[in-house]
Specification:
The protein is mainly alpha-helical and 363 residues long. Helix content is 79%, strand content 1%.
């Protein structure tokens, strides 16, 4: 026979065991749900620790600022591609659109000067000429994005093929405007946004391009998180048929996201000309792989509906730290390329595995 105190002890022990088991179960479920977000963050921490230990200059403020500056242009185009991937689509034209927009803005700056000089008496004509070139460049980029959207939603082409065709169109336009030459006449606002600094004392001179990249990420996050359009993007990517039956015009959502992607690429292309001080019809081929890598490294799903700009920010930091750290180690350029490729492959595997782990936990 068990006494009352022994019965209470056994009951308390069983309750404690059940509570611990429930706590472990809740923790396991939480880890499954957050696997897609935790894996990129842990990857970033590992890279930061590794390069901090293996190099002497990685943690210097100047180098950390350089990392942010190096990924700022990429942040703009990655924000746009995040919208597309959340819809479950792909955009292969972004690098070509970025190149084309940069050379269009540069080539039209002289024309903009002539137009503004005929309209203005006194100052202001240089700013107006630059504004004209930048606006026309943005319109060109958005138009190609609309072409992507129209081909994908109205004609029914897979976004892979539609954007591949537009990539060829954009490449041809870029070559046409430059005729194979390098254009050095840039709008002052592009030179300022892409290459100027705020402040004078090192290491606290802040590149303006960092502010532009941060602004793009903030705007993209706000739209996706706090607007009806953002909710529709996630719904379209999660289950397009269910979204359509709910009354959402999924075709317009996809077309809008492809337009946003192209416009973002155009802005990034113009910023890049300001950073380099010139425009040419080639040289941004890596932007396509780099931007998709950054978004995927952050944990945004390639199948749509999972991720967001917060994930993209983590992916950009991973990409920037990795590229800068490999440079700090002074590895051979060909070694850097395949190392980056391996990291991307690992990120893809983690992306798929985290999705399966979450779905298994939900069953």
């Amino acid at each position: 026979m068990l006494t009352g105190s022994k019965k209470e002890t056994i009951t308390m022990s069983e309750t404690l065991t059940a509570t611990q088991s429930e706590t472990r179960g809740d923790l396991a479920n939480w880890l499954r749900q957050r696997a897609r977000d935790l894996a990129p963050f842990l990857t970033l921490m590992v890279l930061l620790i590794f390069f901090s230990v293996t190099t002497d200059s990685f943690l210097r403020l100047v180098n950390l600022r350089n990392i942010l500056a190096q990924v700022s242009t990429l942040a703009v185009v990655s924000t746009g591609i995040t919208f597309v991937l959340l819809c479950g689509e792909i955009d292969l034209s972004i690098a070509a659109v970025a190149t084309m927009t940069g050379v269009v803005a540069a080539a039209l700056f002289g024309e903009g000067l002539r137009i503004s000089e005929s309209l203005y008496i006194g100052g202001g004509w240089e700013f107006a000429g630059g504004l004209f070139a930048v606006l026309v460049g943005g319109v060109f980029a958005a138009a190609l994005g609309l072409l992507n959207g129209w081909s994908t939603t109205r004609i029914g082409l897979p976004s892979f093929m539609a954007t591949l065709a537009v990539m060829q169109i954009a490449t041809g336009l870029g070559q046409y405007f430059t005729k194979g030459q390098i254009v050095y006449t840039l709008a002052p606002m592009l030179s300022f946004l892409g290459g100027e600094y705020i402040g004078e004392a090192e290491p606290f001179r802040l590149p303006v391009v960092i502010l532009v990249g941060a602004s793009a990420l903030i705007i993209g996050h706000f739209v996706l998180t706090y607007t009806k359009f953002g909710r529709y993007v996630y719904m379209t990517g999660s289950n397009r048929e269910a979204a359509r039956l709910s009354g959402i015009n999924t075709q317009r959502i996809v077309a809008a996201c492809l337009t946003i992607s192209a416009f973002s690429a155009g802005v990034a292309g113009m910023l890049n000309t300001g950073r380099l001080g010139s425009a040419q019809g080639y040289g941004l081929e890596d932007m396509l792989l780099d931007s998709i890598s950054a978004v995927v490294l952050g944990g945004t799903s390639l199948f749509g509906g999972e991720g967001g700009v917060k994930n993209t920010l983590v992916g950009l930091l991973i990409f920037g730290v990795l590229s800068n750290g490999l440079n700090q180690l002074q590895l051979d350029i060909y070694v850097r390329l395949w190392v980056r490729g391996i990291i991307l492959l690992i990120a893809l595997i983690i992306n798929i595995y985290a999705l399966r782990l979450r779905d298994r936990g939900a069953q």
